[in-house]
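Project standup — Tuesday

K.O.: blocked on the structure for the chain from last sprint. Re-posting the sequence here as requested.
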Amino acid sequence: MEKTLKQDEIDALFQAARAKKTAASPEKPTPVQSYSFARSGQISNEQMRAISLLNDIFARNLTHNLGAWLRTTFQVNLVSAEQMPFSEFMLRIPELSYVCSVRLEPLRALSVMQMELAPVPSMIDLLLGGEGQTQMPRELTDIEESIVSSVVEVICRELSSAWQPVGLSFHFEQRQMQTQIARLMPVAEKTLCLSFELRMPGASGLMNLAFPAVVSNTVLRRLVGDWTRQRRHAVETRERMRERIGKAVVGAALQLPSRRLPARTIESLRPGSILKLPLASHQLSEFQVSGVPLFRATPVSRGEFRGAHLS
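H.V.: unblocked you, prediction finished:
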């Protein structure tokens, strides 16, 4: 005799089955990672690579151009790129230092350039026709300050050239005294700080650049956006270029290796003459594409056409 289950009994059986399944395979707790709001807006590794690439180009260009202008060995190296509050950047500025404001267009924002005075006397001496003698750091005179400003203008020109891909240009404004630096941007501003080493014979020093957040955000967005797009579409771009290059027509030739012949031999040539070349009979010809040898080959015939049997 079959037993007919009531609805409450059926529900009880389903609940018991669910309880056994839950007990057999307990759910793993979802891992939770704490978030630090102090790290918001920090430069990622991807962004740092893009910044380093851009400023390495600036360092190489400044090395060649400023060295040629000063007529001496000059080396510029990117030391670091980091984010810090503007107050911390000001604490790193030595008491004897050259500090100036640089305007960035079209953002109309101000950045700060700070240069240690150790290599400055050598630069001034070279620009005045000397041999680049070094001196102990001291306050600059009005004439020396005017000469250094011309060096800063060269640096701004090279910065504009290197940062052209992000659409920014640098314009030297004026030298700033220590008491005026805090007025250029809020002390709590999170700035992008770039540090370069300037090295000359007998002297070296650091040059630091501080950019406000509006500039650093704009630069990072454009840099990383372009760099990421290039990396994402690299395979597609290569395939498209390969397809287009495959349709290009290039010059190809099957010819013997070049040999030197006396001028009198060429002068005596006439139609029907046989020219004896200083080549062995087993010497293979060269299959060249746009003048570049690619294969050794033997001339053959294939139907009505001539060909080259590659070896």
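K.O.: great, moving the ticket to review. Helices lie at 7-24, 45-70, 86-91, 120-127, 142-162, 213-232, 234-245, 263-267. The longest strand covers residues 75-85.
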